[in-house]
Structure prediction request, 294 residues.
Amino acid sequence: MSQTAAIPLSGTLDRPLIGGRTATRFETVLAWSVALIAAVLLTGAVLFLSAGGRWFVVETPSMGEAAPVGTLVLDLPVDVATLHVGDIVSFETAANPGVVYTHRIIDIDADGGLQTRGDVNGATDPWTLTQENVVGAPVLLVPNLGWLFRAAPLLLIGTLVIWTLTSVFTDRVTRTCLRIAGAALTTSYAAFVLKPFVNVTTITNTSSPSGVEATIVSSGMFPVRVEAHGAESVHLVDGQVGRMVIHELSKHGHYQLTSNIDLGVGGWALLIAACLVPLVLCLSVGRVEAVRAS
Prediction:
């Protein structure tokens, strides 16, 4: 006669193995909100393009704080007869075909020709614009969003590579954590290539008996403090122009600028929190729940 003994079971199971989990009210509202926002943006994009709209990303600091590097420019066609001095306009020239400039109108001649100049440029543009040259006038300037558009190809390729390489892992926690780490690595690589956060450009150098006066502009998203040996440091925000008088030069007459992130306590706290997001996501994905037999 054989006997079978029942052995109590205990252990841990991943959440997906415990049973199907119904979405919470917050998750449902969030999903519908994201879907609604996506639908509104898609509808707006279709209407914008159907009206002849074009978009560009500012790549040079010539417009200063009005349109810093990385600004997304949304243009609609415009009649030059309706433009005024002080308006911003996007245009192409025969001198540089295929290159679109976005500058401010500083004068309109008797024939309706437009004279333009970048806000931080020292000289007027060497051309007179007509209707043929004008691409459009900005209806919206969105700072920093252009960086995302420029990074999109790198992020897309990196995501596809990470997703493919991690598909061989059958364990859900391992696979998901590797994908989170891969997404963070891809984002870091895009930031390294594009340098959207900290960047300083020298516009002019003027020599004097006492040293050199350098005119600089910040073209990064973060506020920076620019320093040079023998000069007072300056604090700049995105697109802002600053001047430094450098009294001590090298024996060859050179100087070197250094720029560092210059955030307040709140800014550093937000930056550190953003850097910790991948770690928090990995910890939340790896949670397990004890299951005991009753």
Remarks:
- Residues 15-20 have pLDDT under 50 and may be disordered.
